[in-house]
């Protein structure tokens, strides 16, 4: 028995050595599915050894080697599938990898989240031009078509002698959205899914743990930037990977918890306005320097900034308790209809239909649940949050608005799902914070960022 075992092990060693000698597979490929490739290659090698064990001639040995070469080439990341499962989704190992890919396949989820994020940025920064929106969706489809496991349905319509092909894409589920939530206590920051089912700690570094306290944030050239805040009212810093890096550029005016910031000009600039000194001042940061621009007609501390009819807009004021709303045009600030209530501490979100939504806030010392919309210069109360919320931050992605509250207790976080026509479909509470965290920095990102 021992003699047979030694003979078999000797055979395996000789066979493996022979395989390495006569066949050198290509190994310089950057394999996106390395684990699947390794599993496939192991199966090919085992089949090769089984084949050799039944051979009694050199011709048979050659046939075994040829079968192995064909098997290896057909593996994900082999010569016939250099891009992995993306090139051969029908491979049995790839089919398993794509089952419930929205849950189990990290590469698909990462690719999807990146495409969703780019679409969101593109749509929010488009001027009132349908060609821009069409271009955003076209780019999104191109990006999504490159994702592993993506399935498309094609329909053809005959027009004269031409054929038009369209691709229908699966709607995005909130569970596929990943939001980085950076709190003023950086050690409490986290990543959460859009449905609130997943929440993991995120590691964010900065010169000090309270670096983002009451600083306002906006995207500039695709990167999160923060402006002012209690640690330095004139600082500008950007999130580089998972670390905040302070820039040499400085704000022209002190910006604190009563200031506001908004990404403008196709995401290439940020508009920063107002402060607790009843300032009407605004400035624009372009990635390298901040330049003063038009002052608003009224003070709007804690009045928010959002897009209305594709132009920056604000409404209300904490100290002066007025109902005034106005929008920034190329020639200065222009009045909008007054809001029915004297609100402050709310969040403003511009919608794709050129309307603007207002979430929560405070009236005097009372926190609010109201969801308002201004459309065609008419304010309407269109819904309610499940609990009152103010001093928070909001972000719009994948036909859902996410609002993370600062106060009052229990510090609720909400998701407002919209229909294709941007009407409220459902308001869902997706969690809450353990304590008060005003104005968290929000960023839609990949689901493994800053672990």
TrEMBL record:
InterPro entries: Gal_Oxase/kelch_b-propeller, Kelch-typ_b-propeller. It comes from the Eukaryota. Residues 1-17 form the signal peptide. Keywords: Signal. The keyword Signal applies. Gene3D superfamilies: Kelch-type beta propeller. This is Uncharacterized protein. It comes from Oikopleura dioica (Tunicate). The lineage of its organism: Eukaryota, Metazoa, Chordata, Tunicata, Appendicularia.
